[in-house]
Amino acid sequence: xxxxxxxxLSMTFGATVRAVTRSRLIPTRAALSLTxxxxxxxxxxxxxxxxQGLKVSVRTRGCNxxxxxxxxxxxxxxxxxxxxxxxxxxxIDSKALMTLIGTEMDYTTNKLASEFVFNNPNVKGTCGCGxxxxx
Length: 135
Known about the structure:
Number of strands: 12
Largest sheet: 4 strands, mixed
Radius of gyration: 14 Å
Oligomer: single chain
């Protein structure tokens, strides 16, 4: 699992980004959709940490430019988009919103890692490890 400790009060989660082929755009109500595995993991995390949801933001980092960062969150900031699905809340930072439109958030587990994966049709390129991307 990718865990980055940012200070004593919060924990930041790393995520993998996958470029997917752009399908015909179908209008949806939410900028981000979650798979059942992601909903289950977000529920587990928010229950354990006693927070309202997770906040997705973008930081300049890595060899390809941008990376998604997940933090615990209790309330939406002024320009945040809030996605509610199956009882969980994802707060999307306004700077990350345009890079997330049409993205599916998944949670995968294998022998090497357990992580959130963003299947993003807007990504033009990723680095070899999949943690940073460009749009």
